[in-house]
Amino acid sequence: MLEVRDVRKAFAGFQAVGGVTLVVPPRSICATIGPNGAGKTTFFNLITGHLRPDSGTVLLKGRDITGLPPHEICRLGVARSFQRTNIFPRLTVFQNVQAAFLAHHRLALNLYSRVDRFYREETAAILTSIGLVEKAHEVSGFLSHGGQKQLELGIALASEPELLLLDEPTAGMSATETHETIALIERITRDRGLTLLFTEHDMEVVFAIAQKITVLHQGHVIAEGSPAEVRADPAVKRVYLGERVP
Amino acid sequence: MAARRRLARVPWGLLVAVAALFVPAIGSRFYTFVATDIAIMALFAVSLNLLLGYGGLVSFGHAAYFGIGAYACGILMKVHAVPFSVALPAAGLLAAAFAALFGFFCVRLTKIYFAMLTLAFAQIVWAVSFKWNSVTGGEQGMSDVPYPDLSGLAWVPGLAGYRTSDHFYVLTVVVVAACLWILRRVVRSPFGRLLTTIRENPERTEFIGVDVRRHELIAFVIAGLFAGIAGGLFGIFNRGVFPDFAYWPKSSDVLIMTILGGMGSFYGPAIGALILIILNQEITSYTEYWPFVLGILLITLLFLFPGGVVGALGGLVRRLERTRRA
Amino acid sequence: MPDLSFLLAQSLSGLTAAMFLFLIASGLSLIFGVLRVLNFAHGSFYMLGAYLAFQFVLWGGTGPGRFWWAVLGAALTIAIVGGLVERLLLRHLYGKDELYQLLFTYGLVLVASDAAKKAWGTQQLSLSRPPGLTGSSRVFGTMLPHYNLFILLLGPTIALGLWLLLNRTRAGRVIRAAALDREMLGALGVNVSWLYTGVFMLGSFLGGLGGALVTPVRAIVPGMDVEIIVEAFIVVVIGGLGSFWGTFLGALIYGQVLAFGILIVPAFSIFSVFALMAVVLIVRPWGLLGQPLGT
Predict the structure, then answer these.
(1) DSSP state of C86
(2) Most buried pick, A36, A59, A73, A189, via CB within 10 A?
(3) Measured between beta carbons, which residues in chain C are less than 8 angstroms from residue B52?
(4) Which of C15, C11, C38, C22 is nearest to C232 (CA)?
(5) What percent of chain A has pLDDT over 70?
(6) C29 is in which domain, residue-wise?
């Protein structure tokens, strides 16, 4: 599904990502982990077109997408959530998700139809699956942090992606919220046959659902494999010295 | 709550437009004059709000398209004897073309850079119209722009007794109402909705599959088109076209109208135009320090009523509803 | 081939203009760098500095140093005005959309320009050069007024002084840190609120000083506020928003462009200024020494 070959990115002399190669098989759940500053978000930005790699290629289903603008990459079936909560605060929950449908179905240049009647059922379906349907007409900016993260997931799903990239989906959540969110993500991924690549800080989350884990440190891959393999890897243990690795 | 929904279904815009048509019946030339001014400025302000309120794009140079439209329409009608029905749309299209050209560069920038580039382009338009004596009349501008041939309007029942300026006013109301209707449709369309998502979060909008720059450019062109039409109307109303139509205070005047009325609603800027023009009429009869008053007004607005008049009224209504329910 | 001394004269006049512009633009750049506010009213501070200098000279009676006292007094008064504006009004707009801050400073421009008209009328005013700097000398075959020479020396002196302040003093380090990360600074216990006021006052001081010093060279007239803010903005953009030496470089370049552009294209002045700004914003918005946008 996704193949990243030897991408590099430097900022003013600082090598944020230095030669990372990664393969994400279709319908799998993969995670990239690493301490702060390991380059995880930069890496994501390189895949989704927000940054252009200095060298290396990114292939989606065999097609070269390196350096394409984000909106085109999205159209090819990739959806993503962001580290900072990224919703449309002054729009309602319903309108947030509906907007993604509108964009996905190329209605951006429709200047004359009444927007309210588009994709009402589909939006409701997504809201139900993420558990926000009772709040459909609330202004999204007033949702709790957890609610906003759920909404982000909903927006991502409305783009009908094949590949889902989630940047720290449980950031800032309590333990209960984290469990709920992870269960939700796993269920949705399975039900829709999506491929999931996510980054996380919370190790429990990662080891719970990831099938393949790639460990980044200072912009390089230091280990890769199944959860059991990674857990046992001495390089990983060194890097996470002091952190609990369950 | 049900009452509010019933109220919302009343076609207020249409009612106001029809009521506006009766202003000449009052008989005072002055009222018709002011009403024409208000109608044209309302269109100008609402066109800016497409960028400002809906798109989150701050343009300090919207008057450029107003000026281009005014000159285009005036030159076509005065120098080339083109009929109004052709000259006005042509003026709008020419303004839109320039909006496409300027906008192409502007949308590549954000925030303060965007604002300053729009200002720079507007000042260039002003400078060109100031200097290009042969075409625009230079500093003196173009006077004696003719009225369109409105003899056809005498056919309409009830209008036979009106003066030419009244006929023009009626024509203006019809044109402005039609333009506002189109703009309202645009705002309520998927395009309009995605424009608001750009305002809320351009990065996220990009990653739901929208080409943000192209979207903003299209909004810019539409806003320019209607500003150009407003300009064309104004040139005739003013019986002359002058370089200061594109000068930066014109851009800031319309910006103030938009904020005064309220960026958050469609008709807000139109109400702002109404209030500002009437206020201007009242105050300039007492004192010549209108900019001073305008400045104080603007500052007060920013601190006390950032949502403009419409925003303040909306807040008031909501508070009344809450106390009634409690 | 134009006369060499003529070219030199033009270049020198461009340099003088550049030094004035640097003085004013540095204040604008400083305020923008730290507070992230583009203060349109900076031009008004410049104008008011000029008018106040005029007024203080009028009140100062006769006396050898009255020009200098007037200049200093004007600049300090403007600094205080700036402090009051920031403390009482601008502060409340920081959390809001940038648009509100821009419009607020624009509102100030309207108020200030009319207030100046009311206080001093619309006639052109001017001040004569201070005693001691009234003469001129032959430099490279052209007559250079001593006052201009003074300005030519003052510019780099102030540049150096500001640079020392920003880079060699604790206050300066704090200011530079605020430009980079204000939240962090607050967390470190710096009183960010007073820092902002201080920076705003310093910036306003520079603007007012520029206005006061320009009085013997340029006429004091309504409209000088708008004229200067555009030029100051161009200078800052060319050099790069947020870069100190960028502003200096931008002023130098712009001064020369202004001096020679008029010779090349007669209709230069009103058109070129904006065309130049447009070109810079299109081609290289981050200027010569700034950071590319988006990093």
Answers:
(1) I
(2) A73
(3) 99
(4) C22
(5) 96
(6) 20-221
Range in B26-40, B219-233, C171-185 the model is least confident about: C171-185
Strands (E), B139-269: 142-143, 240-241
Q: Whole domain around residue A3: which residue ranges? A: 1-77+161-246
- Chain C contacts of B262, Cβ < 8 Å? none
Considering the domain architecture, whether residues A182 and A111 belong to the same structural domain is answered as no
Looking at the fold, whether A149 and A165 belong to one and the same domain comes out as no
DSSP line for C106-169: HHHHHHHHHHHHHHH-SS-B--PPPTTS--EEEETTEEEEHHHHHHHHHHHHHHHHHHHHHHHS
Interfacial residues of A (vs B; Cβ cutoff 8 Å): 48, 50, 69-71, 74-75, 79-80, 82, 86-91, 95, 98-100, 102-104, 107-116, 118, 155, 158-159
Of B109, B127, B298, the CB nearest to C270: B127
Instruction: Quote the CA–CA distance of B45 and B262 in Å, as a whole number.
Output: 11
Confirm if A58 and A239 have CB atoms less than 8 A apart. Answer: no
> Does any domain span residue C293?
no
pLDDT digits (tens, 9 = 90+) for A134-191: 888 889 989 888 888 889 889 999 988 999 998 888 877 788 888 888 888 888 888 8
Instruction: Give tens-digit pLDDT for A102-121.
Output: 999 888 888 888 888 889 88
Single out the residue in A105, A125, A160 at which a domain terminates. Answer: A160
Within this chain, do residues A124 and A240 fall inside the same structural domain, yes or no? no
**Contact between residue C251 and residue C18 where contact means Cβ atoms under 8 Å apart:** yes
Please indicate, yes or no, whether residues A150 and A180 belong to a single structural domain of this protein: no
Looking at the structure, do residues A60 and A167 belong to the same domain, yes or no?
yes
Say yes or no: B184 contacts chain A, CB-CB below 8 A. no
Count of structural domains within chain C: 1
The answer to whether residue A82 sits within a structural domain is no
Kindly report the number of other CB atoms within 10 A of residue B214's CB atom: 13
A37: CATH: 3.40.50.300
pLDDT at B145: 77
Best mean pLDDT range from A27-31, B38-42, B293-297, C29-33 = B38-42
